[in-house]
Amino acid sequence: MEKKAFGWELPVFAHISLLRNPDKSKLSKRKNPVWTSYYLDQGIFPEVLLNYLALMGWSHPEGKDIFSLDEYIKVFDIKDIQKTAPVFDPVKLEWMNGMYIRQSQKSKVKSQILIGIL
Asked: Rounded to an integer, what distance in angstroms lies between the CA atom of residue 30 and that of residue 27?
C-alpha cells in the first residue's frame, strides 16, 4: 500500500519451478546441499554462484553460460522464465567456477582466495 501511496513502481515477483538433480529427481533440502553458504564454503565464488543461479529457469539470449551481473541486468526479461523444472548440476557449477578463475584478473582472484582462507 505504501508503494502506491508514494507513487513507487511495484516490484514484479515470479516463482520458478522446482529444482531437480541431474538424474531429474526432486532436489531435497534433506538429502542435498541446498544452502548457498555450503557452496561458498566449498570455494565457489559469489559471482559464480549468482551467475549459475540466474540460469535456473532462464537462458541468456546469446546462449552464454558465463556473464556479468551488469550484463544479466541488461538482458534479463521475466517473460523468458521457462516453465520446465531446471536441473541443478554441481559439476557445471564447479566448471563455471574454474572458468571464472581462469578468466579473472589474477590479483583479484588471489585476493578472494586469500580472504577465503583467512
From this structure: 9
Distances (CA, A) of 5 to 10, 12, 13, 52, 58: 11, 17, 20, 37, 33
Name which of 91, 112, 107 is nearest 46 in CA terms: 112
Return the CATH number of the domain spanning residue range 20-117. Answer: 1.10.1160.10
pTM flag (> 0.70): yes
Cα dihedral 35, 41, 42, 47, rounded to 10, equals: 80
- pLDDT averaged over the chain? 87
Task: Give the model's pLDDT for residue 103.
Answer: 83
Among the listed residues 4, 29, 79, 83, the single catalytic one is 29
Taking a C-beta distance cutoff of 8 angstroms, is the pair 43, 116 a contact?
Answer: yes
Boundaries of every domain in the chain: 20-117
Task: Copy the grid coordinates of residue 84.
Answer: 520446465
Instruction: Indicate if 29 belongs to the active site.
Output: yes
